[in-house]
Amino acid sequence: MKVTLLGTGTSCGTPVVGCQCFVCRSTDPRDHHLRSSALIQTPSTNLLVDCGPDFRQQMLSVNFHGDWPPEKSNWPRADLGRIDGVLITHEHYDHVGGIDDLRPLSYAHEIPLYANAYSCKHMRERIPYCFAEHAYPGVPRLRLVETAPGDKFMVGDIPVTAIEVMHGKLPILGFRIGDLGYITDMKSASEDQLSVMHGVKTLIINGLRHRPHHSHQTIEQACRIARWIGPQPTYLIHMCHDIGLYDYEESWLPEGIHLAYDGLSFEI
Predict the structure, then answer these.
(1) Is the Cβ–Cβ distance between 5 and 204 less than 8 Å?
(2) Which end of the chain offers a freer environment for a tag, N or C, measured as fewer CB atoms within 10 Å?
(3) Model confidence band, residue 68 (pLDDT cutoffs 50, 70, 90)
(4) Where are the domains of the chain?
């Protein structure tokens, strides 16, 4: 399974419009973060996690034409003209603002969107034309699949288990995707829910900044959760421009824990 982090930033992204801080002015591309999203691939399946307002830019920026894995260039490769499913963590704009851009990928087949009941309700209200019973020609062909914590399902050949985490007071979803754990926008979660992540080979988890925030965990809190879950390695996502430069932050993070950056790709 191949994982590509399409975006690793928070709702404003980095650089932030109008900001002149040293992180926003950095020339290191690892300090630049589009809104958080990930692409999970096997030779036959393409699974997207969240579909934010940068989705079109992210997909156009990733080179989908190389053979993967490189040492097995004769392997069949998932057709990147299709997305087999989208896991929606929650309905905030930075996680669903690119849903309309799925339309050219949905012409050949309907794309299922897996989200909790609250997110499904709000997506129906915000983009009703995508889910109308009698849709006009050309709209994305999408199907909302209400997903509850504990649900287990397959997207192609990729097994997924949903868990519940708290984004402040808002219950949202995290996902165990095979041997990958993906959690974003979390402030807290029960041990019972997080225990589903025990045994994953890689963890992706949010760490907003160093100062406390009412609905997101800090980098330090993310490191403690990562150690409790126990995977190696761990990549921190959903970061804002209040953190330090990439090289500085990497220098003090515990062994096995790293700042993620846009375009980071690895295999599990």
Answers:
(1) yes
(2) C
(3) very low
(4) 2-267
